[in-house]
Specification:
With 341 residues, the protein is an alpha/beta fold. Helix content is 42%, strand content 18%. Residues 1-41 form the signal peptide.
Length: 341
C-alpha cells in the first residue's frame, strides 16, 4: 500500500512518545476550534509576516505569495512574504522561532526544515517540536528525477543498467547537502544499489542549469523547475518522487511503481507559528487556508505551479507528517552518513 501524505503516528527520537502525545494534543486544539475567536477577534491589527525559506522566483515562493495574498484578505489584513533562504530552511526557521508568539510572525515549513534538518545538522538553532506550533498543511508537492538527454538514459531501468556498468561514474546534483533533492536521489540509489557521486549546489536552479549544460548527469527538482526543461527536450524525466503520477508527465512512473515501496512520503509545505501562539489565531489561519483551496481561481493558480491541495488541514496533519518523516528519514540519513556543520 502506498504511504499517504499524512500517515499514522508512532514514536521516534525526535518525537518521544510522551512529548508526541502532548504536541499532537496541542495541535488538535486549533483544529477543534474553528468557531468563535473570542479574545482574538481583532486579529490582525497589523501586517502579518510569513517567512519563506527560499529565494524569490521559485515554486515555493509563488505558492507563498498566492497564499499570502488570499489569506490576508480572508482574515481582514495584510500578509507579507519575507524571503530568508539558506541552510535548507534553517535560517528562516531559527529566525521565526525567536519571534513573539502573537500570530504576526509565521514560517513556511517543509520536509527539509521541519523533518530532515534535525538529523542532518550537527547543531540547529531551533527545535521543530519545542519551538513551533503546527498550524496547517498548505500544499502538497512532488519532485521528479531528470537526466541530461545526452546520457541516453530514458528510464529507471536504463539508469540502473548504466550506473551498475560504470560504478562511480554517474553523478547527480542537488539543491544542497541534506536537502530533500539530495535525499530523494540518495534513497533511490541505495534502493537499487547504485554507486553515484553527489554534487551539492546552493539551490535547485543552478543544479538544473548544470544538468542541461551537461556538467552533471542527474538531478531532482520540483515540477516547476523540471517540466520546462523536459518540454525543451534537454532533460528526460525518469521517476516522480511522490505517490501520484503527474498529469503533464503521464508516462513517468512514481517511485513506488518502480519498486521503492518504502519511500517515506510526498513532499509538503505547511504553516508553523512560534510556540504558544493563541489557538484561536491558528484556527483562523487554518480556516483561511481551507477557503484558499476552495476558491476556483486559487486552485487554478496552484495547478499552474503543480501544487496539490492537502489531504487534511489543521495542526495534527502537519504534526503527523513530521513525525512519520522523522521516524523514516532519520535512520536513512544516519545510514547514508549525511551531516552538515
Amino acid at each position: 500500500m502506498v504511504p499517504s501524505l499524512f500517515p499514522s503516528v508512532a514514536a521516534s527520537p525526535l518525537f518521544p512518545r510522551a512529548s508526541l502525545r502532548r504536541w499532537l494534543a496541542a495541535a488538535s486544539v486549533a483544529g477543534a476550534a474553528l468557531a468563535p475567536f473570542a479574545a482574538q477577534a481583532d486579529y490582525p491589527v497589523k501586517p502579518v509576516s510569513v517567512v519563506v525559506p527560499v529565494s524569490a522566483g521559485g515554486a515555493a515562493d509563488a505558492l507563498a505569495r498566492a497564499w499570502a495574498s488570499y489569506v490576508g484578505k480572508a482574515i481582514g489584513g495584510t500578509v507579507i512574504v519575507e524571503n530568508k533562504p539558506g541552510a535548507n530552511g534553517s535560517i528562516a526557521a531559527a529566525f521565526v522561532a525567536k519571534q513573539p508568539a502573537d500570530g504576526y510572525s509565521l514560517l513556511f515549513g517543509s520536509t527539509s526544515n521541519m523533518s530532515l534538518n534535525p538529523f542532518s545538522y550537527k547543531t540547529l538553532a531551533y527545535n521543530p517540536v519545542r519551538d513551533f506550533d503546527p498550524v496547517t498543511m498548505i500544499a502538497g508537492t512532488s519532485q521528479v528525477l531528470v537526466t541530461n538527454s545526452a546520457t541516453g538514459i530514458k528510464s529507471i531501468d536504463d539508469l540502473v543498467k548504466v550506473a551498475k556498468s560504470k560504478p562511480g561514474v554517474l553523478n547527480y546534483g542537488s539543491a544542497g547537502m541534506g536537502n530533500s533533492t539530495h535525499l530523494n536521489v540518495a534513497f533511490l540509489a541505495q534502493h537499487f544499489g547504485l554507486d553515484m557521486s553527489h554534487v551539492p549546489y546552493k539551490g535547485a536552479a543552478p543544479a538544473m542549469m548544470d544538468l542541461v549544460g551537461g556538467q552533471i548527469d542527474l538531478t531532482a527538482d520540483a515540477l516547476t523547475g523540471a517540466i520546462p526543461q523536459i518540454k525543451t527536450g534537454k532533460a528526460v524525466p525518469l521517476v516522480v518522487f511522490g505517490s501520484q503520477r503527474v498529469a503533464e508527465l503521464p508516462d513517468v512512473p512514481t517511485i513506488y511503481e518502480v519498486g521503492a515501496r518504502d519511500f517515506p512520503s510526498d513532499g509538503w509545505y505547511g504553516l508553523m507559528a512560534p510556540k504558544g501562539t493563541p489557538p484561536a489565531v491558528l484556527a483562523r489561519l487554518t480556516e483561511a487556508t481551507q477557503k484558499f483551496w476552495a476558491d476556483p481561481e486559487a486552485r487554478a493558480q496552484m495547478a499552474q505551479i503543480y501544487m496539490l491541495p492537502p489531504a487534511s488541514f489543521g495542526g495534527p496533519a502537519v504534526a503527523e507528517a513530521m513525525q512519520r518523516e522523522a521516524a523514516t528519514w532519520g535512520p536513512i540519513i544516519k545510514r547514508l552518513g549525511i551531516q552538515n556543520d
